[in-house]
Amino acid sequence: MNLPKAWEILKENGFKETSKRQQILEMFSEDDRYLTARDLLDVMQKDYPSMSYDTVYRNLATFVSLGILEETELSGERHFRMQCESDHHHHHFICLDCGKIKEVPVCPMDMIGAALPSYQIANHKFEIYGKCPECQ
Amino acid sequence: MNLPKAWEILKENGFKETSKRQQILEMFSEDDRYLTARDLLDVMQKDYPSMSYDTVYRNLATFVSLGILEETELSGERHFRMQCESDHHHHHFICLDCGKIKEVPVCPMDMIGAALPSYQIANHKFEIYGKCPECQ
DNA sequence: TTCTAATTAAGAATCATTACGATTTACATT
DNA sequence: AATGTAAATCGTAATGATTCTTAATTAGAA
Description:
2 copies of one chain form a homodimer.
Chain A: H1 3-12, H2 19-30, H3 37-47, H4 53-65, E1 69-74, E2 77-82, E3 91-95, E4 101-104, E5 120-131
Chain A binds a DNA duplex through residues 14-21, 36-38, 50-55, 57-59, 76-78.
């Protein structure tokens, strides 16, 4: 997702354009990889020494709920990245070194068939972990 | 996995048979579902009021490293259960209400093919979440 | 039984995350 | 441009899960 689209969504939902939100979104826009709240705070405290975790987490939650960011859990920490623009459902390879991702155009739910009769499926998770070509 | 097999593995690796380990393994053996460290501690403190988190976590880590337990993360907490005995690789449906699982005999890695050329794949995760028939 | 290394207890420390009251800011309205 | 108001942020404290530390206890070997 790009910045204008993200702001469009925020404005549509009545959220204000603040300098903190701008910088958070810029970081995600520039770095196409998974970041933690700490990653963001460390960088942002250079420009805004008073930046607090509360602001980071609150905005991350907002962005995720609006579909601007996506979230996953890696080794016990929440990680965030820009939502993909792809129109078709897909999954991700995630580099455990640099956090970059690669889309994988396969969804295992296509092969579930009748394996779960009368089970109520809410959601699913499929991720592949390893090292990307650049990190080997 | 059953208790004798678990103890066999522990003995092979030089671990001692303690009453705490016995009770932890019994809980997993009886309850075929995901439990948290807190779940275990709450029950065990009835028999051992002095039981500490440290003991729970240390043993859980041991069991996971020996392949006796498997672990996953659900809504920010680590959950543990007995390792499946199935000889073939598979994945799980996990009931978000009761923690019970159902094996799903499908692995998406079978369909990855050449989608990730020169990527070094370390592992993968595929889980389906929802409500089991009993919890609906 | 004794010895020794493994294990546990007890509680403090750490880490990520959330909550809260006070202050500041964006922005619609005048 | 000044004002009003809800939203957003700050500063800090609280929480909850997990890990660490040191001293005491215990399982199993000798």
